[in-house]
Amino acid sequence: MNKLYIGNLGENVSPMELENLFKDWKISYTGQFLVKTGYAFVDCPDESWAMKAIDTLSGKVELHGKLLEVEHSVPKRQRSRKIQIRNIPPLLQWEVCFAFDILQSKCF
Q1: How far apart are the C-alpha atoms of 40 and 98, rounded to whole Å?
Q2: DSSP character at residue 105
Q3: Residue 19, C-beta contacts closer than 8 angstroms, at least 6 positions apart
Q4: Model pLDDT for residues 49-98, shown as the tens digit of each residue
Q5: How far apart are CA 62 and CA 9, in angstroms?
Q6: CB-side exposure of 88: number of CA atoms within 13 Å?
Q7: How many alpha carbons lie under 13 Å from residue 105 in its C-beta half-sphere?
Q8: CB-based contact 42:3 (threshold 8 Å)
Q9: DSSP for 68-98?
């Protein structure tokens, strides 16, 4: 998979700015940048270019005053689903554990 997710973008980041950033760091990409509010996607020619982009840019380069987050893009259907339960009184802790035990055959 050579598609990259570029996160932590400012609202006003344009595809041209991302293109210039990749060119400045000499990172090859294919196609156009798909820019949404706060994030973008881009394809790299192969795995080595994708890893170079991640190693070079992620957490190290700023754009509009924000550090970029660059990682492999993961399709929605392959993402793990998380359940978050908060504010449980201590006396009910075992009941939640029991419910998880039934659902996942293990207790956290």
Answers
A1: 41
A2: S
A3: 29, 33
A4: 999 999 999 999 999 999 999 999 987 776 666 676 677 666 665 555 55
A5: 9
A6: 11
A7: 0
A8: yes
A9: -EEEE---GGGSPP--------GGGHHHHHH
Q: Which residues of 7-27 are buried (b: 16+ CB within 10 A; e: fewer)?
A: ebbeeebeeebbeebbeeeeb
pTM attached to this predicted model = 0.68
Show the tokens assigned to 104. 């996942």
Q: Extract the tokens encoding 70.
A: 């660059």
> 9 with 65: CB under 8 angstroms?
no
Residue pair 58/70 in contact (Cβ under 8 Å)? The answer is: yes
For the residues 18-22, what does the mean pLDDT come to?
96
Q: What is the CA radius of gyration of the chain?
A: 19
What ranges in 1-108 are assigned the alpha helix state H? 15-24, 47-57, 93-104
